[in-house]
Write a structure and sequence with these properties.
This protein is α/β, with parallel strands linked by helices. The protein contains seven helices and eight strands. The protein has a six-stranded parallel β-sheet with strand order 5-4-1-6-7-8. A two-stranded antiparallel sheet has the order 2-3. The N and C termini lie far apart (40 Å).
Length: 171
């Protein structure tokens, strides 16, 4: 049985190409800068406020990412990862969740292994063809352009939580 959005208790995300447009900027001091979409951030906060956990699984380690994650309150972080698929047991141990309750959103070849080990594999509109072909869901938006927000809304709507969130904002 395939996992659907309503079954997700943990959303795992790659960073470059998913939370960012995939552009890596270095300043003159050699420090890495990343650009994040504010709507993705709000979507993640809404998801976490609703009790759905969020984690990061990325091949790169960057101080700019750590600052953004601290700002969002995300503490499940695996960065500098060479083999993302090999993390599934550690993620299970740390969260107490089965892979069926997890979704992973990636965009390129290093993400395929983990995408195939979770209940729901998600990718962005501008992902590598091989990833789009194997994903259970592809966003309309490209990476770093609101794709994560799109997934957050899909999870909240599937769980019947979206309308209450909108109503709360109207008050």
């Amino acid at each position: 049985m395939k996992t659907s959005f309503c079954d997700i208790a943990l959303l795992l995300l790659d960073v470059d190409g998913v939370l960012t447009p995939g552009t890596i900027i270095y300043n003159d001091a050699g420090e890495e800068t990343k650009v994040f979409h504010v709507k993705d951030g709000l979507g993640l906060r809404l998801l976490m406020d609703a009790g759905i956990r969020v984690g990061i699984v990325t091949g790169r380690a960057a101080p700019a990412l750590r600052h953004r994650l601290a700002n969002l309150g995300i503490t499940l972080i695996w960065d500098g990862v060479k083999n993302k698929a090999a993390l599934i047991e550690e993620i299970q141990s740390r969260t107490g969740l089965s892979p069926q309750a997890m979704a992973f959103m990636g965009d390129d070849l290093p993400d395929l292994g983990l995408m195939q080990r979770v209940g729901l594999s998600i990718t962005v509109a501008d992902a590598a063809l091989e990833v789009r072909e194997r994903a259970g869901f592809t966003t309309r938006a490209p990476g770093g352009q609101g794709a994560v927000r799109e997934v957050c809304e899909a999870i909240l709507k599937a769980k019947g939580l979206w309308d209450a969130l909108v109503d709360r904002c109207l008050q």
